[in-house]
Amino acid sequence: MPQIPLAQIEVIAPNLKRRLSGVTATVARLVPVQAQRIGIAATGPGLPADLPHVALWRLPFLPRDRWRVWHARRNVEMLLGLVLRRVFRRRLRLLFTSASQRRHSGYTKWLISRMDAVVATSRKTAAYLDRPATVILHGIDIETFSPPENRAALRAGLGLPDTTLVGCYGRIRAQKGTDAFVEAMIAALASRPDVIALVMGRATEAHGDFLAGLKARVAEAGLAGQILFLPEVTVDQMADWYRALDLYVAPQRWEGFGLTPLEAMACAVPVVATRVGAFEELVVEGETGALVAPGDVPALAAAVAPYLDDPVLAATAGAAARARVTQGFRIEDEAEALIRVYRGLLDPEA
User: Fold this and answer.
1) How crowded is residue 147: how many other Cβ atoms within 10 Å of its Cβ?
2) Which residues lie closer than 8 Å to 62 by C-beta, 6 or more apart?
3) Spatial CA neighbour of 16 closest among 48, 42, 44
4) Which of 107, 169, 189, 305 minimizes the number of CB atoms within 10 Å of its CB?
5) What domain range is 93 assigned to?
């Protein structure tokens, strides 16, 4: 990783978890964009090799010539920021981004209370905090996630039929609502033989029986040829799998934020989502898709039906979805909003 000279660092983005997670992905996609506008470096394991970086062992030796921002996204990162400031006397302004939509533990509340500023990834997330927060929704790379030039050719290249396709991507588990999607597809596809549903993602060992049960349920319904279970693909391939779709479904029962609707919308695909995470702030009911209560299978099946039956409706909603993302949910929008927070903290009067 390219090591950034300590004197050039204005912001540090820690990632203190080796295993890939949503936080790790956020740091990896934001830092290169932010680095074009401010002196930012990531620190910690499990990050891309080309990311601007400062080694963890160097942090106690940060020059004390000026303030720097420590942007934590986990409890352990808030704690390390406090240690660097209080024990090692580094001049750090502490910022925390909260994505959680549940009541915080007493320990987490204590850590948050000692931050200089807090960012929430949605209005719903901000409502769970005991202090004011700046709401900054995530954005995505609209160049990477973009509409297909030739959907039929793309589908052929992916080994998919050129017919109506509806997809649900991500981890396969009850929390993600994969079973609700499957049940809704069993209800909707029984009378729509030309529609194919794609379930793509990975089930960890703990959720292996859950996945096996879903496959058995589909086979029992006689829809094994219409509801397909596909293996997880690498991140760099995901955009094509969104582009291939006519409709994307985000059936989560719980979600911190949830980027998949944005990724689909950026590819000009309408989205039917549950009212969890930030989905109500992303999907515009009746314009870019539809919203239903989590776990309500009949409502989910009813919501997807119009988009499966009316290609013009799906295309119109897809165009509106792409426009919505480009007008306020670009990765550059998120990066710039965070940089404004950084600048406010770095201001001598802050």
Assistant:
1) 15
2) 6, 9, 68, 84, 90, 91, 92
3) 44
4) 107
5) 6-139+330-346
Tens of pLDDT, residue by residue over 277-323, are 889 999 999 999 999 999 999 999 999 999 999 999 999 999 999 99
CA distances from 164 to 158, 197, 201, 309 (A): 15, 9, 20, 9
In this structure, are residues 94 and 119 in contact, taking their beta carbons and an 8 Å threshold?
no
Beta-carbon count within 10 A of 107 CB: 10
Q: What's 149's DSSP letter?
A: S
Residue 12 lies in a domain: yes
The predicted-structure confidence for 219-231, as pLDDT tens digits, reads as follows 999 999 999 999 9
The reply to whether 90 and 69 lie within a common domain is: yes
Over its C-alpha atoms, the chain yields an Rg (Å, rounded) of 22
pTM: 0.86
Strands (DSSP E) found in 81-219: 92-98, 117-120, 134-135, 164-169, 195-200
**Residue 321, helix vs strand vs coil:** helix
